[in-house]
Each structure stands twice: as C-alpha cells, then as structure tokens.
Amino acid sequence: MKLKISKRAEKISPSATFAVASLARELKASGHPVLSFSAGEPDFSSPKSAIDAAHSAIDRGETHYTANSGVPELKRAIADYYKNRFGLEYAPKEIIVSGGAKQVLYEAIQVLVDDSDEVMLPAPAWVSYVEQIQIAHGNAVVIDTADTGFVPAKPEVERALSSKTVGMIINSPNNPTGAVYGARTLEMLADVARSNDLWIVYDEIYERLVYGGAKHLNILQVAPDLRDRVLIINGVSKAYSMTGWRIGYALGPGEVIARMDDMQSHMASNPSSISQWASVGAIVQAEDDVESRRAEFERRRDILLSLLGEVKGISLACPDGAFYAFIDVRGTKIPDDKEFCRRVLEEKYVALVPGDAFFAPGFVRMSYACSEGDIREGVSRVKEFIESL
Ligand SMILES: Cc1ncc(COP(=O)(O)O)c(C=O)c1O
Asked: Is the pLDDT of residue 253 over 90?
C-alpha cells in the first residue's frame, strides 16, 4: 500500500550537506580512504566546563521538563553575554532557547511568514533557509552576491523587493562563503529594512569565528533603532563545538518570542534540560576555549589558503569568518560543481559540497574543521584531480 504523503512534505528536499556526508561515510565504510571536507561542525570536543555542568545537572536530578523557552539561568547567561559582547540589553521574555539554531529559525519563520509572503535572502546562502520558507508557504527571493564579493549590493537588494516582501534573512559570518559583513553593508541593509518596513532575521551563529583584521558586528550595533524589527539567532553549536547538544536561541521583540514560545510548546517543548545546563557552563566559563579554537581555525585557514593558491584553474575570495573556503571551479575542465564533487569523491575520495546546494552553481565548499594533515592531503588530491582532467 502506498501511503498518501502531504504536498508540503513532497516539496522538501533533503539537506545536501547531509547527503554528501552520508555518501562519504558509505565509501569509508567500504574501506576507501575518504577525506571529508563536508562537515558543518567544529572537530573539537565540547569545553570541559560544559561537560562538567552537564554531569552536575544529571547528578542534581535536572532531568525533567523545564520552562518551555529555557531555564532562567541559561537565559540570564545569554542576556549577560549579549550585554557584555554587544552592549545589547534583553529581558528573559525576549529570549527563547530551542533545540539548535535550526529549530529556532524554523519557529521564527513560521511566526513571521504567511502564505505568499516574500523573504529576501543574499546567496550563496545556507541550505535550510529556503526550505523553511517554503514549508511556511512563503517565497524566498534569492539575490546573487557572487559578483559583489559575496556581500549584497544595494541595487540588487532593492530590485528584489516587491509589495509582498516582509523581511530578510542575513547571515554573517556567512555559511558557505566565510564573508563577514562590514558596517556599511549592515547600514545599507538596515536602511532598506527601515524604509520598507521589513523585519530582519540576523543569523550570527559563526560570530566568534572571525580572522585576520575582520570584526564581527551585530546589526543592532550599527542600527540600534531597529531593535523592534530584528530577531537575532545564535547558539552554542559552532563557537563551543557543541553541535550534538542541540542548543540554539533567539533574542528579539517580546511578541515574536512569545509566539515562538507558543509554537515550541506544541512542537517540541523545552530543549534537553541537560544540554541547557551544559550551555550555561559553556557560555559562562568557556571563553578561553573559544579563543584558542578560533586561533586554531585561523591557522588552518591560512594553511588551506596558501595550498589552494598553488592549484591552477580554481580561485577563491579570502574567507574572513566561519570555517569554510568557497572555491570557484568554473575555470577547471569540470565547471559543473555537482559533477566536480561527484568525480573528486569517486576518484580521489575527497568529499566537498557542491555550491548548487547554496544557490551558487560553479563553486564548491570545503570545510577546514579538520586536522592540518587532512587539509594538506585533501588539497594535494584535489590538485592531482584537476591536473588529471
Ligand atoms: C548559517 C547557519 N545557521 C544555523 C545553523 C544551525 O545550527 P544548529 O546546529 O545550532 O542547529 C547552521 C548549521 O550549520 C548554519 O550554518
């Protein structure tokens, strides 16, 4: 018997990054020397302070439902963090904690997007935004930034607007390009939001991972008057290497947070109590770990950039943040990114993610959240592959 599947579910594409990672795992399981550069997660262990806080929460019996939107101690830690880091003040009722930034974004989009609403999104963009907008029956209007240094330019942004546009999703530091938006870009986006009455979902999950002279800014630092139309998204996954704990959070206008809270109460209830306490341990005590890991990512990035610089046929912009290199393969003999990724995986056992998954065909994403040895061996295989074409 064939079960009837909803139209909504039929429209969802599986996550392309997960698809590459699982093919790479299969090849590895059958004995091939696979090197995977597809991961969207740091390879470090979680900070000791997080693990200790989790153990202690279990020992204290913190194993029950918590307040739906998060334990007060975690909300306080998040509020203090935002005050100290960005000078932004948020009350507990303006904060919600969920099962990862992905869930918090899902709830935000469900709360902010109605049928046929349009949401502007600079591309290359993280895979899940568009799917989540579609699940909400909205339309993502993607603008290409490949010709403007992976930063949106005002004419393109304005051209993307229509009477149906309700908001924009901004992600800086960016996955997959590593671009970090400067003050002028953020001011421009804020200006567009202000004059067209739009909301901004500002996903800054990679904010602790910036390199060289780059500085991460929260959009409210350049446009504080937009506090009532900006929803900030963050979490412990990337900064603290805590992807498996599943804790993300949002800070924003009380009414939006309250609606997200209602929605979460019906779809998931509170995120794991143990993970919430682990996150308190991380946010309050793991500052040193964050900085030492950031420095290690910067070291690996520099090695990767210098090695890639020796590979003919490819080019890339220097990524200032996150842990990805976004490589232009249009100058190689395989300009099609999906074909490039399939062949380099099958022939050289190197797993990369096609740019198509980020609405940027002709590019491939290489994560450097892996050892220096893997980076050296991986680039050498990619070089051999391109030379063999
Ligand atoms: C831009 C961006 N936002 C959100 C997320 C989701 O993070 P989490 O693991 O907390 O759900 C990711 C994870 O890859 C991401 O790259």
From this structure: yes
Residue where one domain finishes, among candidates 285, 316, 338: 285
Contacts of residue 44, Cβ cutoff 8 Å, sequence gap at least 6 = 241, 289, 293, 296
Question: Phi, psi (5° rounding) for residue 171?
Answer: -130, 105
Provide the CATH number for the domain around residue 103: 3.40.640.10
One domain, residues 87 and 226? yes
- In angstroms, what is the span from residue 3 Cα to ligand 1's centroid? 32
Longest dimension (CA), the chain: 61
Q: How many angstroms from the chain centroid is the CA of residue 177?
A: 11
Name residues contacting ligand 1 (CB within 6 A).
40, 100-102, 126, 171, 175, 203, 205, 235, 237, 243, 248
Question: Residue 229 pLDDT more than 70?
Answer: yes
Q: Which residue's CA is the nearest one to ligand 1's atom 13?
A: 40
| Rounded-to-integer distance, Cα 384 and Cα 389, Å | 9
Helix, coil or strand: residue 225: helix
Write the CA distances from 137 to 8, 24, 119, 193, integer angstroms.
9, 33, 11, 22
No. of helices (H) and no. of strands (E), the chain: 14, 13
Please check whether residue 202 lies inside any domain of the structure: yes
Contact 186, 216 (CB under 8 A): no
- Say whether both 308 and 193 belong to one domain: no
- Answer whether residue 2 is part of any domain: no
Which residue among 104, 129, 174, 175 has the greatest number of ligand 1 atoms within 8 angstroms of its CB, and so is best to mutate? Answer: 175
Neighbours of 2 (CB within 10 A): 4
pLDDT 10s digits, 115-164: 999 999 999 999 899 999 999 999 999 999 998 999 999 999 999 999 99
Looking at 268, 285, 302, which one is the last position of a domain?
285
Q: Which domain holds residue 270?
A: 64-285
Structure confidence by residue, pLDDT tens digits, 314-359:
999 999 999 999 999 999 999 999 999 999 999 999 999 999 999 9
pTM summary value: 0.96
Statement to judge: residues 296 and 276 lie in one domain: no
